[in-house]
């Protein structure tokens, strides 16, 4: 039992590590590249590097075939746009954003985290409509027997 727990601990620690993707100069501005071994695409826009999920949550299209438009990654299938800095939906049919991974540049090499950042849950409390006022029983056309 202890042996299994030790393996799980090591596995979790390894999963939180970084994956070497490429050299910093290999990715041109506006280029999108798939990260081997992870469901992640790496892209560069205005000199900054971003790592987002590989597939569009709307229809499963590969975002590596998309384009960078107005600081967003655009899906090639239906034109859904995802913010490069946070993965949030900025336009199109998708209802959910894509996961975002941390990017680290060290000694001229680009690394991407294995696990995505934790996405804060949206608070729907502000969007709730007030409950309608209760109608008197006499105003109803249905009668209880």
Automatic annotation (TrEMBL):
Residues 19-112 form the Rieske domain. Residues 122-145 are annotated as: Disordered. Gene3D superfamilies: Rieske [2Fe-2S] iron-sulphur domain. Keywords: 2Fe-2S, Iron, Iron-sulfur, Metal-binding. One of its GO terms (molecular function) is 2 iron, 2 sulfur cluster binding. InterPro entries: Rieske_2Fe-2S (IPR017941), Rieske_2Fe-2S_sf (IPR036922). Residues 131-145 have a biased composition (Low complexity). Belongs to the bacterial ring-hydroxylating dioxygenase ferredoxin component family. This is Rieske domain-containing protein.
